[in-house]
């Protein structure tokens, strides 16, 4: 105290002013929000915008993943996803439940990237349709792993649980995929999942016997075929039925056309991400997600596989914007990618509605989505459990309390002051404060920030970059998906008539197989 008094006297005596004292925050009290100075230090000239602060976008540079948590129809697309796609210079993979992202940002993505392609089986975006053949990625070195990953994407099982039937059906499907890829009897233009489906619906025993002669994948194909041929008939029938049921989406002509080895439309090659920049939109209306989510799963699996298989990442990470991720079910490739560093050139922007979605799908690993996110954006929390989780995540701070002592007559005898720990924001406060116009931004290693949610069409900085997704009345309406009928193994001829029409060499292929068997019997 004496020293401080002498310093003040010296400044008074000399006529100089005391240096300004910064109003430093008191970190000893626990959790708090970021100060203006701290927010200014976090701002970058480029990066993903997490709302607006003081009238301008809060751009944050982040080499890790991003987690967005908000309830349905809360404006995630217009306030976060679309603004990011309008700014991001690198490649992008966009899960687009409405086709709205493609409509609003397609023109700007074409200006930012070398090419933009639309995987849109039912034409909801009105953009030129591309196609993707997952079998085109197979090489002698990766075909075993790729076939297993592709089979796992298609055969999900009941609620994603991998029981005996699910696992065996995945093995059977992987074997048929390997056979289609490696067999010289299958023409190059027919090496796709349409042919795989056709073989599953035909006399599968004939196909398995042909596999016995193959040395593909170091003999793995022959070993799998031998194992299935020795399986008891009743058990094998259940395995085959599971594989057929889980691949029903391949009966849909629009889905099959989007996965064809040949046909109209440019083919997507995810290896192009290592050569330049490319944006790929997966467009599928939300009502079709439950029926065709396997199509989304297999395309996403192939895209992530391409990036994780290479140690030569692009200079700017590929941004995987995964809206409505929970509708795809549990994906092991996504769980693995969340733990990967930026060295693979991947940045995931995962979107969930609540904590329960993450926990139910990813069990003990769900917290990795939170822990490995460089930034978390939270708003419009309609679920009490989710709001309570983020309230605890933010931590608490000390507040002064006053306790009064009263006698038996209610008269105050005295009071004492103390401190108590309180949440920075209670569960109820989070649900009310961020319900409509504001966003809670939680950068890793920094204090929380409150920002304003500004739709892209109200952001002056994005003016002229976007197209109104509602303004094109000339677009054709979405093509209704024909009903998918479960296959009847006892009536495979009628069920595969469409596949035979599409694959004219299939009869020839099976006839050659039968002739080969007859020669063996006569010799």
Automatic annotation (TrEMBL):
Q: Does the keyword Zinc apply?
A: no
Lineage start? Bacteria, Pseudomonadati, Thermodesulfobacteriota, Desulfovibrionia, Desulfovibrionales
Please list where the region (Disordered) is annotated: 464-523
Name where it mostly resides: membrane
Q: Its family? A: Belongs to the VirD4/TraG family.
Q: Which InterPro entries match?
A: P-loop_NTPase (IPR027417), T4SS-coupling_protein (IPR051539), TraG/VirD4 (IPR003688)
Q: How does it sit in the membrane?
A: Multi-pass membrane protein
Q: Which UniProt keywords apply?
A: Cell membrane, Membrane, Transmembrane, Transmembrane helix
This protein is called what?
A: Type IV secretory system conjugative DNA transfer family protein
Q: Does the keyword 4Fe-4S apply?
A: no
Q: Where in the cell is it found?
A: Cell membrane
> Which domain of life, per UniProt?
Bacteria
Mind naming one GO cellular-component term on file for this protein?
plasma membrane
Gene3D superfamilies for the chain: P-loop containing nucleotide triphosphate hydrolases
Q: Where is the composition biased (Basic and acidic residues)?
A: 467-478
State the species of origin: Solidesulfovibrio aerotolerans
């Amino acid at each position: 105290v004496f020293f401080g008094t002498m310093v003040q006297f010296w400044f008074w005596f000399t006529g100089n002013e005391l240096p300004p004292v910064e109003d430093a925050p008191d970190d000893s009290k626990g959790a708090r929000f970021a100060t203006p100075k701290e927010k200014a230090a976090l701002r970058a000239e480029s990066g993903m915008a997490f709302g607006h602060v003081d009238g301008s976008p809060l751009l944050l540079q982040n080499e890790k993943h991003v987690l967005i948590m908000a309830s349905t129809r809360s404006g995630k697309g217009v306030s976060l996803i679309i603004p990011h796609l309008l700014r991001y210079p690198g490649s992008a993979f966009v899960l687009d439940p409405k086709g709205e992202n493609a409509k609003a940002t397609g023109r700007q993505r074409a200006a930012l990237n070398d090419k933009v392609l639309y995987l849109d089986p039912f034409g909801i975006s009105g953009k030129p349709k591309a196609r993707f053949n997952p079998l085109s990625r197979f090489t002698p070195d990766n075909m075993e792993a790729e076939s297993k990953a592709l089979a796992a994407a298609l055969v999900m099982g009941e609620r994603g649980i991998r029981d005996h039937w699910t696992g065996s059906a995945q093995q059977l499907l992987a074997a048929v995929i390997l056979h289609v890829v490696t067999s010289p009897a299958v023409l190059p233009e027919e090496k796709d999942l349409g042919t795989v489906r056709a073989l599953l619906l035909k006399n599968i025993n004939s196909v398995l016997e042909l596999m016995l002669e193959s040395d593909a994948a170091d003999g793995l194909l022959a070993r799998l075929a031998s194992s299935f041929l020795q399986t008891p008939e009743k058990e094998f029938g259940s395995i085959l039925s599971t594989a057929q049921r889980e691949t029903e989406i391949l009966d849909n002509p629009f889905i099959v056309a989007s996965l064809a080895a040949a046909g109209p439309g440019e083919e997507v090659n995810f290896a192009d991400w290592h050569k330049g920049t490319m944006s790929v939109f997966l467009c599928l209306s939300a009502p079709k997600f439950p029926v065709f989510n396997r199509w989304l799963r297999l395309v996403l699996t192939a895209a992530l596989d391409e990036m994780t298989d290479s140690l030569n990442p692009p200079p700017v990470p590929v941004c995987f914007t995964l809206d409505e991720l929970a509708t795809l079910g549990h994906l092991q490739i996504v769980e693995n990618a969340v733990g990967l560093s930026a060295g693979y050139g991947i940045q995931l922007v995962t979107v969930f509605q609540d904590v329960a979605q993450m926990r139910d799908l990813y069990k003990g690993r769900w917290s990795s989505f939170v822990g490995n996110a460089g930034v978390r954006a939270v708003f419009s929390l309609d679920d009490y459990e989710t709001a309570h989780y983020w309230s605890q995540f933010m931590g608490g701070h000390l507040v002064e309390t006053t306790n009064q002592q009263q006698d038996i007559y209610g008269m105050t005898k005295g009071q004492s002051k103390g401190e108590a720990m309180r949440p920075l924001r209670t569960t109820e406060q989070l649900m009310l404060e961020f319900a409509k116009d504001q966003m809670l931004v939680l950068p890793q290693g920094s204090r929380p920030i409150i920002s304003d949610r500004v739709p892209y069409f109200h952001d002056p900085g994005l003016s002229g970059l976007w197209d109104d997704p509602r303004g094109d009345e000339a677009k054709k309406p979405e093509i209704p998906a024909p009903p998918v009928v479960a296959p009847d193994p006892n009536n495979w001829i009628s069920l595969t008539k469409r596949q035979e029409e599409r694959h004219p060499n299939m009869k020839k292929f099976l006839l050659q197989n039968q002739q080969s068997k007859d020669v063996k019997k006569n010799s």
